[in-house]
Amino acid sequence: MLKNYLKIAFRSLRKNKAYTIINVLGLSFGLACCIMITLYVQEETSYDTFYENGDNIYRMVLERKYPNHVSYYAIIPGGFSEVLAEEISEVKQSTRLIGFSNFSAIVKYEDKVFEEYYTFSADSNFFSVLDFDFVQGDPSSALKNPNTVILTQSTATKYFGNENPVGKNIEVNGNPIEVVGVMEDIPENSHIKFDFLSSSTNLGFLNNPNYISFSSYTYLELEPGTNKDEVEAKIPAVVEKYASSQIEQNLGISYSEYQAAGNGYVYTLQPISDIHLISNLESEIKPNGNIMYVYIFISIGAFILLLAGINFVNLATAKSAERAQEVGLRKVMGSERKHLILQFLTESTFITFVSLILGIAVIQLALPFFNNLAGKSLELGLLSNTLTIPALIFIVLFVGVLAGLYPAFYISSLQPIEVVKGKFKSNSKGKWLRNGLVVFQFSISMILISGTLVVYNQMEFIQNKKLGFNKENVLVLERLNVVNELDSFRNALMNITQVTSVSTSSTMPGGYFFGSQFQKPGESDVLTTKSLSVDDYYFETMDTKITEGRAFSEDFNDSLNVILNETAVKTFGLENPIGATLTTTNPDQNGNILSIDYTVIGVVDDFNFESLRTNVTPLAIYSNESQVGFATFMPIRFESSNIQQTVANIEETWELYAPGEPFLYSFLDSDLDRMYKSEAVSGTLLAFFSILAIIIACVGLFGLAAYMAFQRTKEIGVRKVLGASVAGIIILLSKEFTKLVGVSFIVAVPVSWYLMNNWLDNFAYQTELSVWTFLLSGILALGVALLTVSWQSVKAALTNPVNSLKSE
Amino acid sequence: MIKLTNIDKYLDKKFQRTYILKDINLELEQGEFASIMGPSGAGKSTLLNILGFLDDANSGEYHFFDEPVHNLSEKQKSQYHKSHIGFVFQAYHLIDELTVYENIEMPLLYRKVKGSERKGMVAEILDRFNIVAKKDLFPHQLSGGQQQLVGVARALIGSPKLILADEPTGNLHSDQATEIMELFQKLNKEEGVTIVQVTHSEKMASYGNRIIKMKDGMLLENFPHMAD
What we know:
The structure holds 2 protein chains of 2 kinds. Chain A is α+β, with helices and mostly antiparallel strands. Chain A contains 24 helices and 25 strands. In chain A, strands 1, 2, 3, 4, 5, 6, 7, 8, 9, 10, 11, 12, 13 and 14 form a 14-stranded mixed beta sheet that branches. In chain A, a hairpin with a 2-residue loop joins β10 (169-172) and β11 (175-183). By secondary structure, chain B is an alpha/beta fold. Chain B has one domain: Rossmann fold (3-Layer(aba) Sandwich), CATH 3.40.50. Helices cover 35% and strands 29% of the residues of chain B. In chain B, a hairpin with a 2-residue loop joins β4 (59-64) and β5. The longest helix of chain B has 18 residues, at 174-191. The radius of gyration of chain B is 18 Å and the shape is globular. The relative contact order of chain B is 0.20. The chains are: A alpha+beta, B alpha/beta. The interface between A and B is medium-sized, with 25 and 29 residues.
């Protein structure tokens, strides 16, 4: 029986080639999309699931409350790791990972020199918590000694080729370090990434336990069966015990006073396997994913498959008139309804199977492109993964049955008497359903189109938002510590004709800002700010406006002066900021408390020094001349249409002052764009999928229009004979679809308005949702729909009525 | 075998009821070869459809082997279609996507006849109808007469007790029609199959042994045909 079903399915599909092609095309694109999204989602949800005790491993993170805002940090004070393991019995062990991926290190081996971003340090028990595999060396002892490093496999190969790396010496930022082990590369699907891992005993600042300034990624392994809430509940007591004395020592106020003023530390534990999708804090090791995008893509995948399935349902029910004869006949021959249902399900499953084969071909072609867009390295793994083929078979059965179910029940319900009478007309019930499904398809398409437009608008908005500084035409040099004479280097750069201004600073917008705490003399209020240090030319180079007072200047010694941004002034309630004295207290390297008085000499416009997802927070700007000042970055403003020449000139100068050091530069505007990479990627993917969705919807519409035109051939013939014009006929045939697209528009607008409003809430600075976005998406969908339908309409309208009426 | 009592079939339109069949009383014995005749619109086909369980009467009773058909479920009806009734249509109604062999085989599939047995049965009937050479052809590759031959073979393969034929020769020229009618006659005489056909032609009706005349939905006269 099955053989018979398959046979008739195959022959019937072969006979109706156009119908088959439309169905197979739609379904194969839908399946390809859906499978690619599944791969993407699978990869996104597979992060950090490979540790032996993964269920018990948590990262401790901080919600830092300030009187006027809250910040969330992935790094916490280094002192807690050890004391938590001591004080809380449920904590089996705790380990720290330290490193900042936006600071680079220069690594040399013999004559090879590389700039490395992922040189991290860790405690000696790191590998007993996170069991990464070793190729060479002993994980339990590898991190015990200072001046030793473990390399990942690919780093080791990069430096040593086929030589045995263990025992070799490399130089990191000028310090000789011995390679003691090689570990497997950290899998792509981990929130952790490093290429070098040296012992934390190298880091002097960890010697004096600190409980208030943030430095370390801290991972806790809890005793099996422990609920993280229990541990979280015990943390505040530990924080109070250890942090309060340091706060009192630094600020001269009690912990309770400090808390009463609105400050607070809330530590929470993140299950390690959740970090990638739920955690988007400051100072993450690498940009994480976002569970929202996973949900969005799952829905898009489901919708696209649904669209393709709807095509199938629509075409099958529209064509039911042609199948009615066969159905009636089979019933007369004694076929029961279940046989017919089974037959039509076999047919739809068969189509799905053919589509899958084609879909796999589409995936193989599209996956590299998709990977490029999404920044992933996904593969289908047909043979390498034993689960792939069963999963695909499941998909075929699922989609085949789902798409075939309605047509099967509908067609098999046709009565044999209709056949014997020799006439059958598709009834109005089927028409309502088809129209409903077309409306659904176009609503989804419009939602996707308007979603894409909004994402693009927002990206555009971010790129063009006035940031309070001018990000165009700024080239940024890093690692000024390798430059011999910074002042002469700066002067030499200024002599390049295209260069208009050169400055140095501790960080660049979007980078890492250290924290500062200020008090007014004799008062207990604390102002916590983010901080950077800059030289005398910073504001001029960055084109940032000083609204009150003055900038740092060559004419003054600014080592005890500070510039605040407007938010800081407002937050701290400084009525006459210029000349105000602010005291900071910080422990020095030996743990002695140093109190320094700074004078406010200027107020700077609130420029967006962080991502536009957040509002501007208080900022204090020190001079490089001050005790906390240091120069790492060099923004260079230039005026030139010939950027290549400018870069070449700057490089020439660099080689004079930092001979043998690699010349590394970036442009400020593209650095800033990188902060919105995940949004940009999602935007591109969204565009990709909305194009696919509309293609699938149109393929279905094309089939439906072709069918309707075919059905109305006689009507059109009669109308033409009676004097209807070609234009009149085209309008007649297109009118109905236009109405459907109109209804879709009414459905789509509120849904997409709601969804996009939600998405925009991710940003502190939002573009406005404009009516035009929705109108444009509607017009676009209508345009494509009309174009699709008109092909058929024009064809039908131009047919000579003699031909269409001949058969009667 | 068949007993129709007071069968009415009508269409209701606003205030007017149009009768297609009115007060039909008819008995058919096993082994009869009856021809229903009458002008267009007399209700011949409707009557045939009701006889074949394809259409329901609005009122009246229909007993098939003493089974009240008007009370049968869809599933029971399809059981009878499988085992008791064979249809032959004016337009042949072969399935275009199936070959001659597969078309004939189809009813057996629904009766769950085993593969080897099925093969034997189809082979036998192909042989009997002299169409073995055509078994792998598709319907559109055959002439009308040949298609109808396949249609009859398909109706017969299930060894039905009753064959219902709606103008089986309507689309055929006379030589082909004669061939089909002779076949019917032979089946009726040698195998005792009951046959009811609708026809416009006296000549075709003469192959049978009973003529049922209809007009305006009513039976006019109803007598055994004494041809032989």
